[in-house]
Design a protein that fits this description.
Shape: globular
Structural class: alpha/beta
Bound molecules: zinc ion
Helix content: 25-40%
Number of domains: 1
Strand order of the largest sheet: 5-6-4-3-7-1-8-14-2-15
CATH class: Alpha Beta
CATH superfamily: Alkaline Phosphatase, subunit A
Largest sheet: 10 strands, mixed
Oligomer: single chain
Length: 508
């Protein structure tokens, strides 16, 4: 870059052509722009000034925070941005989610090695180990046969967490899904089958061949056992059926192991917590590790959360940062908004958007509490979904509402627009999923409140669950080497950017 600039300057000096592009030394005569006072024009000018002021940070990342919105694709970002703005009483489209203010962006290709549309195990492994692999595989390479324990032996890949721990960094994982679910498990686990979360999920042959379930790997594994902060759901996967569960739910384990007690025994200066109050009361100076299991299964959707009983994603992120910041060498923290995905699988945009708004709040907290000079923040997704934003709704139309379009003069018609079948339709809809009619015509939504919490947006193809989508997902980043995450790239690049920024790991 510098060589090019010097060469160009030399050309200016030697040739002295008035028309030559000599950077700031000669300015083109700028014709007047008639729309210069238009607010859209001014905001574009401000965006240029801001982009010019962004300086690359080339130092080493002491800390890394990787946020993964499970299923956070571009339509979800756009719809959540509008939704958050409308919650604030704005029209919505002009709003900006916290992570959209991060200066570097990329589009990531999410496919698995054997599947055009990704699942969270293969994509979690790409994000956290830097190699693409097959769908359903956690922390093992693509040569493994899914569900075949013996085939996984020797194919384990090094995870970001393992490399960070070897370099002396603290590690933490926070999720609203089960801690043994695909994305968090990719941080510490190796399994030829993502569904082997407890021994009860495993065929006896796999157990005989020496594979262990993901809950056990979190407590006993080389990487899992060294994690300082692990917060999420999935308590049932850690407890046997006869255990005293704090919320009275029967544990799932068949091997009679009580992994919570085992964890407490292994970490005498650690604390096990299962509700919000216990989590918030933890003193980081007196606690070396924390295991938080706030639900027997996944944690509640943000929209349904018991605000006094269960911590939010933001509260968990805050406590994780409190704990990890105690480590002078730095830390790697993975934060997953795990339930955006589940809401989409139900064709339920309301819960997907509220979970995304909560993710934006957690990112905002991390942005406020960290220094871009030494902390790399990346916000991305494992894969997309099938939700679309369509029709021609008028500006500021409720994003969860029915399409109300404009009349010929360009102003709102005020009443829902009717489709060719004489029925209204929503702005958000899904390509497939449980809300699609199995036979017959689509439902008539006339007079229906489509903005409610339990409304399932219409879908075209009837499936028991809505599927993932195969379009590229966005990433947003700031901090050391964040500029390396740009353009269109393989999803696994995220891992390599982190490795380079934090100076972790060397190829053997
Ligand atoms: Zn999913």
């Amino acid at each position: 870059m510098r060589v090019v600039r010097v060469t160009r300057l030399l050309a200016c000096v030697l040739v002295t052509l008035a028309a030559a592009d000599c950077g700031s030394s000669t300015r083109r005569a700028a014709p007047a722009v008639s729309q210069a006072n238009d607010p859209w024009f001014r905001s574009g000018q401000e965006a240029i000034a801001e982009a010019l002021s962004v300086e690359r940070i080339e130092g080493r990342a002491k800390n890394v925070i990787l946020f993964v919105g499970d299923g956070l694709d571009v339509p979800t970002v756009t719809a959540a941005r509008i939704y958050e703005g409308q919650l604030r009483g704005q029209l919505g489209e002009e709003n900006t989610l916290s992570f959209e203010r991060l200066p570097y962006r990329a589009l990531l290709k999410t496919y698995n090695t054997n599947q055009q549309v990704a699942d969270s195990a293969g994509s979690g492994t790409a994000l956290l180990a830097g190699v693409k692999t097959k769908a359903g595989l956690i922390g093992v390479d693509e040569n493994v046969v899914r569900g075949n324990c013996a085939s996984a032996d020797g194919h384990e890949v090094s995870s970001l967490f393992g490399l960070a721990q070897q370099a002396g960094l603290a590690t933490g994982v926070v999720t609203t899904a089960r801690l043994t679910h695909a994305t968090p498990a990719s941080a510490f686990g190796h399994s030829p089958e993502r569904n082997w979360e407890a021994d009860a999920d495993m065929p006896s042959r796999a157990i005989d061949e020496g594979c262990t379930d993901l809950a056990r790997q979190l407590v006993e594994g080389v990487v899992g056992s060294q994690i300082q902060v692990a917060l999420g759901g999935g308590r049932g996967y850690f407890l046997p059926g006869d255990a005293d569960d704090p919320e009275g739910v029967t544990g799932l384990r068949l091997d009679e192991r009580n992994l919570v007690e085992q964890w407490e025994h292994a970490h005498p200066r650690g604390r096990f917590v299962w509700n919000r109050e216990q989590l918030l009361s933890i003193d980081p100076a007196k606690t070396d590790q924390v295991l938080g299991l706030f639900e027997s299964d996944h944690m509640a959707f943000e929209a349904d959360r018991d605000r006094s009983g269960e911590p939010s994603l933001t509260e968990m992120t805050a406590k994780a940062l409190d704990m990890l910041s105690e480590h002078a060498a730095g830390y790697v923290l993975l934060v997953e908004a795990g339930r955006i995905d589940h809401a989409h699988h139900y064709d339920n945009a309301y819960r997907a958007l509220t979970a995304t708004v909560e993710l934006a709040e957690a990112v905002e907290l991390a942005m406020d509490r960290t220094d871009p000079e030494n902390t790399l923040i990346i916000v991305t997704s494992d894969h997309g979904h099938t939700m679309t934003i369509s029709g021609y709704p008028t500006r500021g139309n409720p994003i969860l509402g029915m399409v109300v379009s404009n009349d010929a003069s360009g102003t709102s018609k005020m009443t829902p627009t009717l489709a060719a079948d004489g029925k209204p339709y929503t702005t958000l809809s899904y390509a497939n999923g449980p809300s699609a009619p199995r036979r017959g015509d689509r439902a008539d939504l006339s007079g229906f409140d489509t903005t409610g919490q339990n409304f399932q947006q219409p879908a075209a193809v009837p499936l028991a669950m809505e599927t993932h989508g195969g379009a590229d997902v966005p990433s947003f980043a700031r901090g050391p080497m964040a500029h390396l995450l740009s353009g269109t790239a393989e999803q696994s690049l995220v891992f390599h950017v982190i490795l380079h920024a934090a100076d972790l790991g060397r190829a053997r």
